[in-house]
Description:
Layout: H1 3-41, H2 46-76, H3 83-94
Amino acid sequence: xxxxxxxxxxxxxxxxxxxEMAFKVQSRRDRVLAHWVADLVGATEVEAYLAEIIxxxxxxxxxxxxxxxxLADVRxxxxxxxxxxxxxxxxxxxx
Length: 95
């Protein structure tokens, strides 16, 4: 294995690790966010709600789909939550 191949392998490994870390951080953020929203709307099945959020995320809707679902659920519960406030909360939880 020459130096170029070693460098390529190292770059692939760094990309894999960065992707894995981003996935773990996003998953943790979604878990905390699900608990926050469940408390906000008075839901008792937090794990079931988290599963719904994960389903929305994995259907290629990403953060926008999660935001739309949460806003719809909060409004259905008769609460008021601004999209900007939700995005700020999500950004805070990513840190």
